[in-house]
Amino acid sequence: MTSPSDRRAAGRARARALFVDLTPLRRSPAFARLWLGTSIAAIGTQMTTVAVGLEIYDITASTFAVALVGVIALVPMIVAGLYGGMLADAFDRRAVALVSAVLAWASIAAIALHAWLGLDNVGLLYVLVTVNAVAGTVVSASRSAIIPRLIGTDLLPAAGALSGIGTGFAVTLGPAVAGVLVAAVGFAPTYTVDVVLFSFAFLGIVALPKMAPEHDALRPGLRSLVEGARFLRRSPTITMTFVLDIIAMTFGQPRVLFPAIGALVIGGGAITVGVLTSAYAAGALLSSIFSGPLGRVRRQGVAVGWAITAYGAAIMGFGVVIAVAHLLGGRMQDAMSPDILPPLALAALFLALAGGADNVSAVFRSTILQAAAPDGMRGRLQGIFIVVVTGGPRLGDLYAGVVVAAGIAWPPLLGGALIIVLVAVLLRAVPSFRQYDARIPTGQLHDKG
């Protein structure tokens, strides 16, 4: 019979098991520095993402023009992801990350200068955002390929959850701060804050040890690309992590609707845009904080399927709220008022649920990719992964920008339903993904039919 003190100790142990595992930070000081620098820089990145959308909408009053921000950058970003991944496999990954980070920082500074000069040139903004997206894709691919070397594959779920905390905190705080700053002092000071915050990314990268490539690594080029394509063709389990994320982000990414929702449906303007964007990130942040049980999940493919299905259902719920608010008549208020709080709160709740589900999916998808792929292939696969993660929402921007002609609520309503159906079909069609066991990541990598 256990004593009261033993029961209390067991209760505390169970409670601790619910929270994120901090072991990666203790095992690798280099990982800890990289995580901290990346998390701080991400706050400014999210501020700029929201501010650019607001500035283009302010100049053009067009949701489609806002959607083009991502669409124009998509093809260059795909090229950057593929080539940047090859660079990360062929050269010192630390050096690749550092050079591309310098280019990303310079593009942010140019966006700030554009605003300070009052140019209001939408075309120039498209170019600068594209350069930033290209450089950021290479940084992310290199950095992600570095992580397994720093902490080992056994702590990848914990590292993914920590990454979710950094991203969730950034996307919760960044858009909210951007909304307030844009409304209070304008675009130029908002971008300038990002210039300062992005400098922290260099602290994590510079302090990394050298990350030399394998001795037989192929130089960037067609042979390297073909080798990566052949590996993916033999690995449907890894391919599924990409396909499922593309589906979720293409049909379930409503961010391009936020300016119109703030102006025409719910009201509140820039503040509403910040609240809705932050709500999504708050869900991701909470799911990462309470991510302890994720490290004990073995059937990670099945977990991805359930998480994305839940994501689709939450996006549908968001669409219902917007549809009802639109039917009741848009408030068209520039500032917050008691009338807009109920629909805004409900919309934010569904977005928080979507953010939590998306983060759980991301933790397992990145874990499967990093654990199952050989180190010499991780750069190329991470390049594809980053292209999918960042390119998928841009396809979602295009989807929403086109479908919004039928009504602002239609993109999330139709998209959420498509996500649920397509995930069910694909999970049945690819048995190796359903059967994937985290204990033997390479043992079930290839589909036996």
- Beta content comes to under 5%
CATH architecture heading:
Up-down Bundle
CATH class: Mainly Alpha
- Return the CATH topology: Growth Hormone, Chain: A
Taken together, the total number of domains comes to 1
- In total, the number of strands is 0
Largest sheet: none
What's the number of helices?
A: 17
**How far apart, in Å, are the first and last alpha carbons?**
51 Å
Supply Rg: 22 Å
Order of helices and strands: HHHHHHHHHHHHHHHHH
Overall form: globular
Instruction: Catalogue the unreliable spans.
Output: 444-449
Mean pLDDT across every amino acid position: 84
CATH H level, superfamily name = MFS general substrate transporter like domains
Residues in helices, as a percent range: over 70%
Structural class: mainly alpha
Domain Major facilitator superfamily (MFS) profile: 178-449
GO molecular function: transmembrane transporter activity
Keywords: Cell membrane, Membrane, Transmembrane, Transmembrane helix, Transport
Transmembrane segments: 34-57, 63-83, 95-117, 123-146, 158-185, 191-210, 231-251, 257-290, 302-328, 340-360, 381-402, 408-430
